Structure formats: C-alpha cells, structure tokens
C-alpha cells in the first residue's frame, strides 16, 4: 500500500524558466483544493539540504501567475550529487513531515530526484521546466513558448537595423544541446540560415548559402545560431570567418543570452503550468511516483522519469526543410 500523502513539497531546480511560478501556484492550490499541506522548498535541492522550507497556502501564491523567474529561487546543487548531501536532504524532509515532492526543472533535476527516490523510496513527480524544450515525453516544456516569443521579438528589432544598414546579423540563441529554440524562432523570424547542434551544416555550405542569398537580391540577412551549434566555431569566430571569406558582407553579432529566460510567461505557458501542476499533485495522491507530467497531443500525460531522462527530444526535421524553402 502506498503511503498516504498529507504534505507535499515543491521546488524549482536548474535554470529558471517563465511559467515556473504558475506551476508553483498550481501545485500549491491543488494541494489546498485536496486539503493537504504544501511546503515550498527554496533554492532547489540546495534548500532541501539546508532545510530552507516555508509553508504555502493558496493565498501565498497570489499575483504570481504572470511573473517570470521563480519565487522559490533556483540553484544547481553540487552537494545534492553526493550521498551525504542527499542524506541531509532526506533528514530535513522527514523532520518537516513532507511525504512527497514535486520538482520543476530539467533533466539534471529529474536525475537527482530519481536517484534520491532509489535511495529513500521517497515519492516524487517531475514537471518539465526549461526554455530549451529538450525533454523527452512532452511536446512543450515550461518557458519554451515564452522564450520563442521573446527571441522572435528581439530578431524583429534586429531586422530593422539589419535592413537599414544592409548588414548580415548572427543572432545567438540559447540551447546548449538542443536546437528547438533556434529552429522555431528562426522560422518565425524569417532567418536566412539556422545553425543547430543536431545538424552540422558545415562552413562551406554556410558560405554558399550566404553567397546565393546575396546573388538573389537580398541586401540584409539574419542567421540564427544555437549556442550549442556544432559547426565548430563560436559566433564571433564565425563572424571573422565569414567576413574573411565574403568581404562583401558587413557582419554584426547579437548574443541574446539570459534575456530569453526572463519575462512574463505567455498564455500558453501559464495554462500548461496550471494543467501540469494539477496532474502532478493528483498523481502523487493516487500513489504514483517517478513520473514526469507532460503534454502530448494536447493531453496531459505521465512519462516514467527514467524515460524522460534517457529519451531524446528530437527536432522536427521537416522544419529544416521548411526553413530552407522559406529562405529561397
Ligand atoms: O538549460 C537552460 C539554459 O538556458 C541553456 O540553454 C543554457 O545553456 C543554460 O541554461 C545557461 O545556464 P546558466 O544560467 O547556469 O549559465
């Protein structure tokens, strides 16, 4: 018989993403709805190790559905990677009477949670929160949609100055291991070329494509590059390389950086967060553990955490073709 859950902890872990607050709110209010207690765990697993907990009632999450970042703060805890760190975390959870927790984060956060569960048989649920959208078992992670809109908005602005000066812009977007942001925002913003970690375009093809676009009458161009792109050069080296080989181009670089992680979540992310939070808590109450709640074909689903961690969230290759056609 699974243990009856009377108190649920909630934490945000790893890189923050817009929609995390809406997910915290959803977890807290779903607990209140089912008359169970909810405890906020600050600074991810580090706060768990230090016992940085606070009781959260439904009114403690007023006016956060629209806020970026995470009111619980986030951290990438090295100490939680050690057995001693996890032992301390477990002692604190037991002392606070917490029976289960919901972790909102990416695959590193899920890996830590799963390891913790295997050592202490502690019920856990994961909610995918990262702008990178690189988690298997969900079509969307929290914050991805907002980040796409932020990037498109920025590139629209860059386009104004690019076309006024007949320049080529390299715009670097986030995505250490995944090209979802680059690919989708690139198409949305009308980029000439999109460089992503999953596909090595090669320097020659890039030069060729830029030459072709100049010859076809384009006076300015935008190339979107994921930070993890495997073309072998960072974005500034790429600028030098292109300028050396295609002197007709006047190149500028814009690294969008952490602005992509901030800002008010889109309506899509708020609704997603609300749906995932409800399902995460209700699944724990049903005695389930070690799952990630996600969205598949617009339905909220459960994927075993192990699969979510090991599986690869593939890019849609058709989008590469669409992008190529659009840049004709
Ligand atoms: O994992 C999300 C992400 O935004 C990546 O795209 C990026 O590489 C990384 O976080 C940056 O992490 P940090 O803020 O710790 O430097």
UniProtKB/TrEMBL annotation:
InterPro entries given in the database record: ATP_PFK, ATP_PFK_prok-type, PFKA_ATP_prok, Phosphofructokinase_CS, Phosphofructokinase_dom, PKF_sf
Record-annotated Phosphofructokinase domain positions: 7-283
Gene from which this protein is expressed: pfkA
Listed name of the protein: ATP-dependent 6-phosphofructokinase
Domain of life, per lineage: Bacteria
The protein's role, per its UniProt record: Catalyzes the phosphorylation of D-fructose 6-phosphate to fructose 1,6-bisphosphate by ATP, the first committing step of glycolysis.
GO cellular component, one term: 6-phosphofructokinase complex
Residues that, per the record, bind Mg(2+): 107
Organism the protein comes from: Flavobacterium frigoritolerans
